[in-house]
Amino acid sequence: VEEASLTILLCAKLDAHADSPERYWANAPAETAQMLVPMIGKFYEGNDALQRDEGLRSIGIAGQTIMLAAKAMGYDTCPMIGFDPVKVGEIIGLPEGHLVGLMITVGKALKPAYARGGQLPASEVVFTDRFPG
């Protein structure tokens, strides 16, 4: 983090669904927006786990996109864990109701990445139709 050219923190606002939900469908056909916008609040309201899950899901998608775009531009990236998200939130002045989900460093690698420890076999992570058992 200290030597990276750029460090990106991806954060989520947990009650984003309640903040002008029509903005999520602003570019959709009117009939689509009229159908879906009223559903947003009902879907997320009162479900803290779903709000957190949606925030982390969105962060994951954005993080992967950032990493792929950086690589396409000739930069190296590293998704970071092992930091104290509460302390980082304090440092950046993270508002109440938000969470820090992912830290990504961007720059030119000073040395090759550590070798991967291995990948789980597909039989342990890919299932057809249902989980075994």
Report on the architecture of this protein.
This protein is of the alpha+beta class and 133 residues long. The protein is 39% helix and 17% strand. The protein is built from four helices and three strands. It has helices spanning 30-44, 48-72, 85-92, 122-125; strands spanning 6-13, 76-80, 98-107. It has a three-stranded antiparallel sheet with strand order 1-3-2, sandwiched between helices.
Observed structural traits:
3-stranded antiparallel sheet, 3 strands, alpha+beta, 133 residues
List the helices and strands and how they pair.
Blueprint: E1 6-13, H1 30-44, H2 48-72, E2 76-80, H3 85-92, E3 98-107, H4 122-125
Antiparallel strand pairs: 1-3, 2-3
Summarize the structure.
This protein has 133 residues and is an alpha+beta fold. 39% of the residues lie in helices and 17% in strands.
Main sheet: strands, sense, barrel: 3 strands, antiparallel
Strand order of the largest sheet: 1-3-2
Beta-strand proportion: 15-25%
Shape: globular
Order of helices and strands, N to C? EHHEHEH
Number of helices: 4
Number of strands: 3
| DSSP helix fraction | 25-40%
Kindly report how far apart the N and C termini lie: 43 Å
